[in-house]
Amino acid sequence: MFSAQGPSLRELCVQALSSVERGYDLLAPKFDHTPFRTPESILGASAEALSDLGPFDRGLDVCCGTGAGMPVLRSRCRGRITGVDFSAGMLAQARTAHPDATWVRADVRALPFDGDFDLAVTFGALGHFLPAERPALFEGVYRALRPGGLFAFPLGTPPPPTSVSHWVTLGFDLAMRIRNAVWRPPFVMYYRTTPLAAVRDDLTAAGFTVTVAALAALGQHRNGGPRYRLVLARRPIDSH
Known about the structure:
methyltransferase activity; Rossmann fold; Methyltransferase; transferase
């Protein structure tokens, strides 16, 4: 499905009926041949937006998957770059693709780091966390950063109700809620649970100072709003 190298419809169904961890373990060998991988356009625009915000020493990719975001860290960090994920299958693919990086298997809701990094990023992962789980994630990233460190991630803006994308994402989230209501274990993946205002509030509560930059290179919706923004959450220099 999607391409000759991608998963079949049967494989996707098995993955969708598994837990998040098991599902990604199964999908890992073919993940980079699906539309679920963060597009190069988003990675490139994010890297460009970060170019004037460094320099950074050590970098961390949170929910790194197969390592698509590692080139962003490599282009902006002078020191060691690390990826963390809870899927052994995804990490195995990442190690093969980026043998020069450090890889850690962990639940990112309980990150095992303390002031180790200058830059943290995440790409396309926030939909895997229920709103009630975001505070633990953001607090862990805050602890992982040194004072003055930056947590950055692209966030899509809601398409207007008149667009096809609006109804596609609405339908996907509805189908996922029905699936999780009738089938266990749950597979958490929603497109509409990370509005900017709520994400900003959770980051601020974790201690970050938050700004947002439009990723103009990724275009605009018909209403003139940017399709993507880069959220920039800075750990204050005088934090402890």
